[in-house]
Write a structure and sequence with these properties.
single chain, alpha+beta, FAD/NAD(P)-binding domain, D-Amino Acid Oxidase, Chain A, domain 2, 2 domains, six-stranded mixed sheet, 21 strands, globular, binds flavin-adenine dinucleotide, binds (2S)-piperidine-2-carboxylic acid
């Protein structure tokens, strides 16, 4: 017999929409600060329809932009804290090599961000990491702090701590409507909730979702092919033990960049992907025709035959994921220009996972009306002209 149901609680200190890694870390910080927080997710958890699923993401200290590299020490520390809180391993240190033409400005900026000088030429790279083959005039910069975050495990861990601190996570509940006001009213497929503060971290759905709030954000969801490549000779590249992550910068054959991770999810397969994809609608991402040309695979195959010649040149496994790109590929972390009790975190442009602990802290601070811990100039909504629609 079903227990008599309790009347559902409907008022909170803060409501967060979207339980990907950004919304979940935001809710985690709020709950740790004793804010009564409701985290709403449209799909039943765990799910693979957004941007935060899968087993692996790169974490690195090297960034060409100082306004990201300065956040990395705190991000590493907060990831460690989450590991300690949950007793789980969320990070494997593998190192990362940045590959590009000697003297490339972004490569140089990354080297400066590391504060070290370890530059490897082709012979030194091949000796240290068998499997990599640089071309004439190219070098590798080593970020030894870098490694792999276990993404699915991390998402579960942060949601677990949120709930342990008294947070409410309601999945399978899609937000349909927001009514701004001193108390924001949120209507979902299952109920109506109110809070004096709202945070929207809806990933690839954010652009369309915030139109109801008079915002026209220049966000482009991209469908990303996530490809895994088999070694021609099993064991020949040290994929499972010594191989680092890598990221290319300034290569003319792949201006958006190509990146790779050692074998984590599938034994003997290396994850190598193009840091770009095809424009899509998150509701229709599986409707792409299977016979449509796959420019990303062609770019990757050609890269692999030159730079990773010990791998087969056709992917053994393919999955999909979503990026949500802003025009400058910087995040959007800001208050709504008109409704200051509504905060938006979006546009993570394929590099937001590693920074989620700090992003969550910043969104929490913005929502509580506090001075953010970092300079927010690069993340302002108003850097894009015309974001506020006339009538509201
Ligand atoms: C292939 C790939 C590789 C990547 N590699 C790296 C990497 O190596 N390192 C790195 O740092 N970053 C990486 N990233 C980027 C990183 O994964 C993303 O920046 C991050 O996951 C974005 O998280 P999010 O919470 O914004 O989005 P999501 O995880 O998509 O979360 C948004 C959530 O909002 C929910 N939602 C939307 N609308 C509603 C609604 N109306 N009601 C309720 N819920 C709603 C969605 O269902 C979703 O769960 C990669 C991304 C991809 C796709
Ligand atoms: O954020 C990162 O470190 C990687 C770089 C390459 C593309 C995917 N994201």
């Amino acid at each position: 017999m079903a227990a008599p149901s309790q009347p559902q609680k409907s008022t909170y200190d803060v409501i967060v929409i979207g339980a990907g890694i950004q919304g979940s870390f935001t809710a985690y910080h709020l709950a740790q600060r004793h804010k009564d927080t409701l985290l709403l997710e449209q799909f039943l958890l765990p799910h693979s329809r957004g941007s935060s699923h899968g087993q692996s993401r790169i974490i690195r200290s090297a960034y060409p932009q100082q306004y990201y590299s300065c956040m990395m020490p705190e991000s590493f520390r907060l990831w460690q804290q989450l590991e300690a809180e949950t007793g789980t391993t969320l990070y494997r240190q593998t190192g990362l090599v940045l590959l590009g033409p000697a003297g490339d400005p972004e490569l140089e900026a990354c080297r400066r961000s590391l504060g070290v000088d370890e530059v490897l030429d082709a012979a030194a790279l091949a000796q240290r990491f068998p499997g990599f083959q640089l071309q004439a005039g190219q070098v590798a910069v080593l970020d030894s702090t870098a490694g792999v975050l276990f993404a699915d495990r991390a998402l579960r861990a942060v949601q677990e701590v949120f709930c342990q601190h008294g947070g409410t996570l309601r999945d399978g509940e899609k937000v349909l409507h927001i009514k701004p006001g001193a108390m924001v009213t949120v209507t979902t497929t299952a109920g109506v909730y109110q809070a004096p503060r709202l945070i929207i971290t809806a990933g690839a759905w954010t652009g369309a979702f915030v139109e109801q709030l008079g915002l026209c954000l220049p966000l482009q969801p991209l469908r990303i092919d996530v490809c895994y490549w088999r070694e021609k000779q099993p064991g020949s590249t040290g994929l499972g033990d010594v191989s680092p992550c890598f990221l290319t910068l300034g290569l003319s054959q792949a201006p958006h960049g190509i990146y790779g991770l050692p074998s984590i999810e599938y034994p003997g397969l290396m994850k190598v992907c193009h840091h770009h994809g095809s424009p899509t609608d998150p509701e229709k991402r599986d409707q792409a025709s299977s016979s449509a040309p796959r420019p990303d695979i062609a770019i990757l195959s050609s890269f692999i035959s030159s730079y990773l010649p010990r791998l087969e040149t056709q992917p053994a496994v393919m999955e999909t994921c979503l990026y949500t790109n802003s025009p400058d590929e910087d995040f959007i972390l800001d208050r709504h220009p008109k409704f200051s009790n509504i905060v938006i975190g979006a546009g993570f442009s394929g590099h937001g996972f590693k920074l989620a602990p700090v992003v969550g802290k910043l969104l929490c601070e913005l929502s509580l009306g506090e001075e953010p811990s970092y300079d927010m100039a690069h993340f302002a909504i108003t850097r894009f002209p015309g974001v506020l629609r006339a009538a509201q």
